[in-house]
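// run 5 | inverse folding | seed 20
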């Protein structure tokens, strides 16, 4: 199969909608990362996603809709807090978990009795959903385990030959996946930090909880609410370690390694000071920029032939928590305090 990269014009959107209605897969742009979409109401179409990505069967998918009313047939009931969250953050990078209805196939929920739903704000994503007139199940459109794609080219690099088409909607604005919050518990609980920060959620909901898996390694076989959080994720082939501490200490630490095989993942301008090969991922005090650039930077480290990567540690304010969460997984929780 040859994978077509379609423009995000009427022809591209119509072609994508037709493939989706026929039970096929399409890579679609969203404001967070590119998604690999299938008809969420067609279990057979949804199983193709798992095959193309090499995704573990027990990891459920997010269902994307274009208008709030489309949530009703997908869930048993809409919790009051979901109305408030939707009003504040939809369309946008927030995924809400509710009890699922029988309409949602078990391939989407991976056997759980819940379903994750979001309305993306990317105009092309919403036009594709509207044109296809079906909810779309879509995980990030990367091979399972590798960094999420923030350009159509990233999707092509991972899935060429495995899917019929990708719609090119340019570079993703947010650059990191949506915040996932479950309302199927007494206190709303963040299962994955993302484009909407904890402070923004608290403004609408009051008290929220952070799942343990956000900042801690979950033991193999431990029961988890968010199966996605137990896998090694977002990783380049090179071995990543996070170095916590000042730039001076970072420089002193990396100096001892063979220049040819190590790379620094650092903030803008620091490449003028760090004496090894550097890949930058945004300004030090700009977590939004870091979110936009992180996955592209993680993909770049493999193209420069690095064996070991030392990463400057991001601050955890706002969307920075999501940046740190992704970096922790990319490094398999290897953090050195300098
Ligand atoms: O921004 C995003 O969320 C992107 C774009 C394409 O929308 N999608 C995305 O999907 O990141 P994915 O599959 O890579 O991540 C979905 C996360 C996983 O950690 C999964 O375990 C969790 O959401 N999830 C999905 N349904 C769930 C459910 N019913 N209960 C608990 N966790 C769920
Ligand atoms: Mg993913």
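// decoded
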């Amino acid at each position: 199969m040859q994978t077509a990269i379609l423009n995000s014009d009427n022809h591209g959107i119509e072609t994508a909608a037709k493939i989706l209605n026929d039970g096929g897969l399409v890579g679609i742009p969203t404001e967070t990362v590119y998604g690999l979409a299938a008809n969420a109401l067609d279990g057979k179409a949804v199983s193709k996603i798992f095959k193309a990505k090499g995704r573990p069967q027990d990891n459920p998918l997010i269902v994307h809709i274009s208008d709030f009313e489309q949530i009703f047939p997908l869930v048993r009931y809409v919790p009051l807090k979901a109305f408030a969250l939707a009003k504040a953050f939809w369309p946008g990078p927030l995924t809400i978990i509710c009890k699922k209805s029988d309409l949602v196939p078990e391939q989407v929920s991976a056997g759980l009795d819940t379903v994750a739903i979001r309305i993306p704000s990317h105009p092309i994503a919403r036009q594709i959903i509207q044109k296809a007139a079906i909810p779309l199940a879509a995980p990030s459109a990367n091979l399972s385990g590798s960094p999420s794609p923030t350009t159509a080219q990233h999707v092509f690099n991972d899935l060429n030959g495995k899917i019929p088409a990708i719609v090119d909607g340019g570079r993703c604005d947010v650059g990191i996946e949506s915040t996932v919050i479950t309302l199927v518990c007494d206190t709303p609980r963040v299962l994955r930090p993302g484009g909407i920060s904890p402070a923004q959620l608290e403004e609408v909901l009051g008290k929220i909880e952070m799942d343990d898996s956000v900042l801690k390694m979950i033991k193999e076989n431990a029961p988890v609410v968010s199966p996605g959080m137990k896998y090694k994720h977002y990783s380049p082939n090179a071995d990543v370690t996070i170095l916590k501490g000042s730039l001076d200490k970072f420089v002193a630490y990396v100096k001892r390694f063979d220049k040819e095989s190590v790379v620094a993942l650092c903030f803008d301008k620091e490449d003028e000071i760090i004496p090894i090969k550097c890949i930058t991922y945004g300004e030090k005090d700009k977590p939004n920029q870091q979110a936009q650039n992180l996955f592209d930077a993680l993909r770049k480290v493999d193209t420069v032939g690095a064996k070991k990567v030392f990463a400057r540690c991001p601050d955890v304010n706002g969307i920075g928590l999501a940046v740190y969460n992704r970096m922790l997984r990319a490094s398999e929780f290897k953090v050195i305090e300098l």
